[in-house]
Specification:
Methane Monooxygenase Hydroxylase, Chain G, domain 1, single chain, 52% helix, transcription regulation, transcription coregulator activity, transcription
Length: 270
């Protein structure tokens, strides 16, 4: 009975090694095509390679799930010899990946559990998943399903529909701000939001730069900008009467008081 189980185990291991070798060869061939023949590689060829790999992996899964295949989990592998020297047979068997079977590489190659850090993270994730209630988990599942459905719908839509939607969104996009436009119109038409500035008053004599310019020439004493009578009175400036001009012309609201300096004596006359 024991010999029969050993033979089944050896046959299963040999079959598994053969199937894994086929998967390795298929992967190497596909990677070589991606690196060297990417310019001539077509999408149907890529799909064929994926289909080949998928079929080989399914074959391995069927072999492992077969009732006649012994359980590999119950088998224990114990290193019999550990050496720091190079082993040519081991290097040839592993395609020069493991030239030495020493104490450093045994924990990595014969490990049956994940790394302590990975195991700790797995425990934390399991604890967080256990704390989530069924209702919250169901809501999260529904949200994720909705997002996936929307994404699949967008991917399955024709390109013309996506282009039409993008063009419509560009056309409907506003190129101005209505509030800014209304504020600008109110400022221009009604002066809303503008600060009120006091017009300049009479210039006091003796101020620098405001004296008479030339002997016998006129001197500009006061220039005021008149608006509405009530506005000027409230601001403290003189009220300028409106002048009637020609039809179709806007009467000037600028009042100038010019004082003749012909009778005055220039201080620098000799």
């Amino acid at each position: 009975m024991q010999q029969r189980e050993e033979k089944q185990l050896e046959a299963s291991v040999d079959t598994l090694i053969s199937l894994v070798a086929h998967v390795k060869n298929a992967l190497q061939s596909f990677i070589a095509k991606l690196e060297n023949e990417y310019e001539r590689l077509t999408w149907p060829s890529v799909l064929d390679n994926f289909a080949l790999l998928s079929g080989q992996l399914n074959t391995i899964n069927r072999l492992l799930k077969n009732e006649k295949t012994p359980s590999f989990r119950s088998q224990v592998i114990i290193p019999l010899v550990l050496s720091q020297e190079r082993d040519d047979d081991l290097a040839k068997l592993t395609e020069k990946r493991v030239p030495v079977f020493s104490h450093e590489i045994v924990p990595d190659y014969l490990r049956t559990k994940p790394d302590p850090e990975v195991e700790e993270q797995e425990k934390q994730l399991s604890a967080e998943a256990a704390r989530i209630g069924p209702d919250v988990a169901q809501k999260q599942i529904q949200t994720l399903n909705k997002m996936c459905s929307n994404l699949l719908e967008k991917l399955n839509n024709p390109r013309e529909d996506r282009d039409a939607e993008s063009a419509a969104s560009r056309q409907n996009k506003a190129s101005f701000n209505p509030s800014d436009t209304n504020a600008l119109v109110a400022a221009v038409a009604f002066g809303k939001g503008l600060s009120k500035c006091r017009p300049p008053g009479p210039v006091a004599p003796g101020m620098p730069g405001q004296g008479p310019m030339m002997s016998g020439g006129p001197t500009l004493q006061q220039v005021t900008i008149g608006g509405a009578a009530g506005q000027q009175a409230g601001m403290g400036g003189p009220v300028a009467p409106q002048q009637l001009g020609q039809p179709g012309k806007i009467p000037s609201s600028i009042k100038t008081n010019i004082k003749s300096a012909s009778g005055s004596i220039h201080p620098y006359n000799r």
